[in-house]
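call fold(seq) -> tokens
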Amino acid sequence: DGSLEKIILEDLNDNLQPEIIVVSRSVATGNFLSAYVFEFLNNKLLFKISKEGVVPDSNLINILKEDFKGK
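ret:
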């Protein structure tokens, strides 16, 4: 269980097209973050990657950029 933390527009793969990042925060111990990355392609919203269990004070964007490479 969790709640919506924020939505971020960020170009994770340096293609000059920002991805949509939906960030949620768990309500359990630790308040860990989860991120779900989407992109628009040909007028369609496509799911790309997710990352769960991220420590709240981590640099989420850098973590996602590393995971997003090659996807």
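Helices lie at 60-68.
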